[in-house]
Amino acid sequence: VTHSIPACIGSMTINSKQLDNESPVSIFAVNKCYVTVQDGTFFDGSGFAVLVRDGYKVRSDVNITLEFRTTAVHGILLGVSSAKVDAIGLEIVNGKVLFHVNNGAGRITASYEPRGTNSLCDGKWHKLQANKSKHRISLIIDGNLVQTDNPYTQSTSADTNNPIYVGGYPADVKQNCLTSKSSFRGCLRNLVLTKGQQAELFDFSRAFDLRGVFPHSCPGAEH
Predict the structure, then answer these.
(1) What is the pLDDT of residues 135-168, one digit of tens each?
(2) Are 80 and 162 a contacting pair, CB within 8 Å?
């Protein structure tokens, strides 16, 4: 077993002596437990999760679905890039959700702007679907569809080969389709990337790098 247990552990005793949880000698990637917990992965606004170590290949088609909950008006949701310009990115900027795609010829963006600046940042769950089909891209937020024209119709494939960064990315990593550097604060759940008939649900407890991310434990309300 190479990943940590996604759980809360309390009242541990060894040889009838209770261990002191409050002042450990050292601690790494351990968060407090919450009185009310929802299913989901908590991002504390300082880090990111890294998935698919050997690189995710977007190519011509991908459909991304996830649910998010946040009280912040800025935050990176997901980015997959390449060493060149090809990339995709999902982010919240000034309360809007942006889906960027670059198939090599130039970046295009589908932008969902809610009626009120804070209406997606209300601490409630929101459903997102971002779809790239060759040169066409669309974004659906809570059932509301946004499409955008793409002048670069000949360019259809995003030839990415880097890992999937969720919730943010390290300073030394290049992301060609993200404009923000703000790490996401809030909760994500049900991240699925679909190519054709192949749907992949990502389990954050199996990510190969987690910083400021706590799988399967989402506080019932923002603290």
Answers:
(1) 999 999 999 999 999 999 999 999 999 999 999 9
(2) yes
